Amino acid sequence: MAGVGMDTKIYPSEKYDRVRFSSDQGGAGPSAMNLKERKIQQDRFYEVQSALTLEEARYSEMRKKIPGLGRIPKDRINTQSQDLEFQKRKQDHVVFVKQNFRQIECSKFVPDPKKLGVKKIRDLKCHCGEILTEHAGLSSAQPMNNVQRDIVEAYLIPEKLRSHINRETLFKAPPENLASLLHSVPWSKEDAFRENICTTFGKISFVNNDNSKPAKYVRLSHNDSVDRCLELMEKHWKIMEPKRPSLCISVIGGAKSFKLDNKMRETFNTGLIKAAKTTNAWLITTGSNVGVMKAVGNAVSEGQSFLWDDDRITHTLRLIGIGPWGYVKDRKYLESDGDGCFPVHFKTSNIIQHGKPVPLNPNHTHFVFVDDGYRNNYKGASEFRASFEQKVSKPTEAGGLGIPVVLVILEGGTDAISDAMVSLNHHIPVVVCSGTGRAADILAYAYSHTRSKHHDSKTPRNRKGELKPKHEDKLIEKIFDAYGERWKEKEIEENIRLHLTNVKKCMEHRDLINIFPMNKHEDLDIAILTALLNSKAGETSDEIRQNQLKLALTWDRADIAQEEIFREDVLWPTGSLDDVLMEAIMEERVEFVALILTQNVVMKEFLTTQKLQDLYDKSLSRMDSHHLKKLMRRTINSEEFSYDNLARLMESLMDKYDHNFDESSIVDTGPGKKFSPVLTNAQQHFKFPFKQLMIWSILMLRQKMAMFAWQMGNEPVTSAVAASRIYGSMAEHIHRNESALKEKVLAYKDEFEHLARSVLDECHIKHQEKAMMLAERKSPSWSSMTSLQIAASAGNRAYLSSVSCKNSIDTSWNRGIQSSPSKVLVTVFLPFLLFTPFLEVNAMGEKKAKTFQKILTFYTAPITKFTHHSILYIFFVALFTFFLLVDYQFYEITTIEIVCIVWIFTFIVDELYTLLTFPSPTFHGKIRDWYGMLKCVDMLNLLLALVAFLVRIIDMEKHAEEAKIIFSINCIIFYIRIMKLYTANSSLGPKLEMIKMMFDELRMFLLVVIVFLLAYGVASQSLLFRQRDASWDILRDIVFYPYWQLYGELDFENAVHTDQDCFESLGNFSSSSMTRMAYNVAKMKCKKEYWLVYILCAGYLIMGNILLFNLLIAIFNHIFTKVEEKSNEIWKFQMYFLTMEFDNKTALVPPLSIIPHLYLFFKWIARKTCCKKRSKGVQFTQRHLEFLQLFEKEEMANYLRHKKSEQKDSAESKLQKRVEELFKLVEEELTADQGGSSFNHTLIATQTTKLPRETTFESCPLEPNGWPKTEAVIEFAKKLEEKEQKEVIEEEVAEALMDEEQAKKEKKKKKKKKHKKHKKETQEEEKINNMDVQNNAKPESEAQKNIPDNAWASPLPPTTTRNLSPRLASQESPYKSPYLQRRLTPLKLQNDSSEDSDDVEDNAQVKTPEPYNILSTPRRSRSKLPASDSDSDVPRKSRKKKSLTRVESSTEDERRSKSKFFKRFRSRQLSDTD
Q1: Which of 21, 583, 610, 716 has its CA 20 to 30 A from that of 362?
Q2: Gap between the Cα atoms of 289 and 298, Å rounded
Q3: Do residues 404 and 250 make contact, with C-beta atoms less than 8 angstroms apart?
Q4: How many CB atoms lie within 10 A of CB 848?
């Protein structure tokens, strides 16, 4: 049995809609009650607890552990609002279904005369297709008595058949005269079918699939309204939540005979799920667990996920099954008693029986069962499904949903062709997956062999496809092969004509059909998108173009939008693209935003205050904005967007912020207003719209959109630094538990910092001075802050260490002084050198620096101020040391003391002045950036010195010693303060950072050491003293001795040994006046040595000295390495703050600085009261800023071009280039073989000629233009290259082995030949010598000398060269052998020549007629290798090696020929002499 028992309980056991928790009441309920009341209370608690949200239920366990609290809040126990709301929704659902939907049952059982071939009466099927026991009334799961059964049978079975068909004859054979009886019993669906109120609805919980959410279902009549069905799905099933679908994909195809191989299945699953998830699409099938429907269900199961909203979850993929009710296996278990099943536990099956109902697929989320009254019939829901799809696809103005529908066909029977025809008649595009078989292949064949016939209208809607006559017979053959086996002979011709007509009607809408080859392509989602765009290609209404653009946006296919939608002949009205642009920004579709901005859309006109507010409001309502809500809550204590809240948030992130509203639209609200008031003009614009877009993108962590806004906006360098600053501040406000989010934000920060530095370095390469100006420029768009200020507050050391920033800091540090620091130091001690050329000073725009200008430049430069400050401070420290050691008087105040105190006071004033003038935009920023921990300690030390002096004045005699203690502490700080001067040194500056980091680690290390120290101290003291009185000495002994023992000061004599003095002081008991007990107690208080203390001390020292100290050394080593790697960045970062500090100090340093400070104080008072400054000067005017901005933008573009170029030159790009060359080579070869046909035809022909798979590229998926895809080609090229390398290596190894064996054999042969040859030559020489002796001839050397010179002058014809000297072999001759020519060619040139030239030479040698050699001797066989024509199948490397073998063979032949000729020539010469 496939179905199991029915559970009609709706609340509270809904699976996944409500989460069930324990009904433990905790401490919320009364303690004393009777059993019945307690049971009622427990049930009440259980219901209330089930109504809690997940977040509320999470705290129930925590509440239980707190005394006085129960699992459920007390204010929720007595409220019934949740129950009432749920019950109301449930009741509305039941009422709606009963009022609007009907179900059809057969009320008259008359066996079908065509189906009488059964053995028992119980198997007889009615005209409706159902057996008797499954008719309404008899199929109930409730048991029935005989009386009830007789009453139902009397209602169902006609009177004429009742005697033959009843409950007693069910297991008997049908009577022989049953056929004749049936002719007298009429049956019609009008009389037999009865419509009743729908009672089959609710939820299905599939037992086979426990991890799924229950599927909603309803049974309705085929005559019921589609509008009511959509209303049920929208209002009661909430199928439109949380997001409305952008597409509806209807999938039809084969059922029981349908199969997909692994590759096709992966292609189909990937493409379908990608399309559905991208568009939030509905998927529609018949819902059965067979064929295409099962394949779609499996695909959905792989990609299914859930969206969580408190305690309610929804599917991301909606798979709707619209199928016939009569073809559902075990459908009776889905019926209810009238109020629905919530849920019904249903068990599906994978067993498919021919001609019987099929089970449901458990991966569907919704089921609509269409009841036409017939049972065991598959065709009952096609009309309703077609109407449903048409209603969905209709525009909203026409009463539809306005959701585009696409029909996808995989394989399929004749009904698939009919459904495709119906869909095409309603202008629904169809995607045919060719290669899957039957209907899909038939339609694909008809499409590929159909030509478009143009009618009067030029629109694609009126282009009807006509099948070419020569292909009609082939199409008929395909139809017969697919379906002919199931047809009777007399039906074949009629059925073929019918289905051929349907196919032709489909081809009349050829423009709505898209063919998707399953064997070659991998992007089914793109085929669906193309079908949607092509379906509206000929229509020009704005709404259709908008819908097309939204579809392309949903798919994120800007390339398709640019080619198909944004054509040059399309004119977009003003504002028509605003909604699409807003959605593209929200979804971070950067390519679409860039594409829309090229369509005459101006960002400054688009981004108004109202649109920006909508952007923030929509963003804050999304699930991915939790981090922004937390950030707003932590910084401004609000989660709502307003421009004031935005300004406060940005101020907390980067200290200073302006909205930069367009000045033409800002209303003057009076002086002193920091931000504009509440805006009433929704069309108010921004002066820098891309800045606002970048800020929104950064706050929402949309890095791609932020990068795009940065690239399109103004001031790339400053904007990148500002973005890095915002990200850094956001990371500081992220809790440490959210480490993944923090790492992500910091990665974005580093990316923008790298961009800022890279663009500035690019500017530096082009023009150093302008790059420095960019670093120093006060940005108009970023609240007049410089990039150096922003980078310093953000801690961007990498940016501040760039060349341009370093040059800018050095320029500010020297302030016009062009000499070295050593010359500055000399000039400080010898000021008269300012009147000499010893010190070089920049004229700063003047023709020549005058003496007075030179003096002012020198004494106002930060480097000079630092030098004066360092010298005077060292003098102050020396004076304070003398005062503390020598001059300090307990009973009087000396002159040196007064001087030191006055000097300290000037230090305080100078510190405060430097703080107030430090270049940070806010006071909080000044304290954060400059007034750090060391500055606070320094200021506290100065104030403490003044306090000590004041205390000393008040009561000199009483507090003189305490004052000296304070002065001693001051002296320590003063000496430590000298290290600040080391910052100016590139080696010592980073060491200060190193010491700071080590000190932080040392504090953590002490927390570990103190544990072992106290453990050992307490244990040892407890063993040394048996009893002890409470005193502070105990704490000293616990800490003092263990601490010093860590450094090797064991001091066992005082720390561990027995205290003899204590025992001697007690003496003997006999001489003591104490009682025995008192004497023993006093004796116990004396320290006594204990053996275990030594063991504890050894263990303590091992842990402390060996383990912990080595751990500390390792930590310090790590810090040293880390700081040393970035020492340059650290020092430049320190130099910025040092430069800014002394740049704002007065020319006179303490103690003389009090004079200019007084002057500036009175000047400030005057400015605030009477002498107000009229205007404030600027460094760069608007013209200068525009010039710098153009320069900056140009270099940013250069940097991006260089970066793109580097990416092209990467290894993968080189591989892709190689792949393109391979394609070109294959195309040329195949085109040459086939007479110049196109590349697509070439690929087809390649398959027919059975070329290797690597050459045909069969496995590579193709683009729509016919070329293979780049990614697949790259993968293919990698495999091909690896295979070629492997073959070459194997070939080389085999050749090496063969060569080695052949070399051994040849060596042996040569050895034998050489021996024979030597023996033969020896014999011939003996004969010649004997002949010389007999004939008195001259030796050979002398004979050669007698040859006349003109014999070598020129070559003779072959007929006259017979008796010439062998020296002619060295002369140039047109008769020279080709092999000899190659032999005379240097080997290096042969190797450098191309392989192709080698092949040409080889072929030329074969085709050239073989001439006689210069000596007219018969040519020997040059090589045993086959001719070059037969080498065409050999790899080039082998051919080259064979060619070299031929050269060696030819050389050996020539040498042998000449040797023989010399012998013959010698013999003839001797005979001539005779």
Answers
A1: 21
A2: 10
A3: no
A4: 7
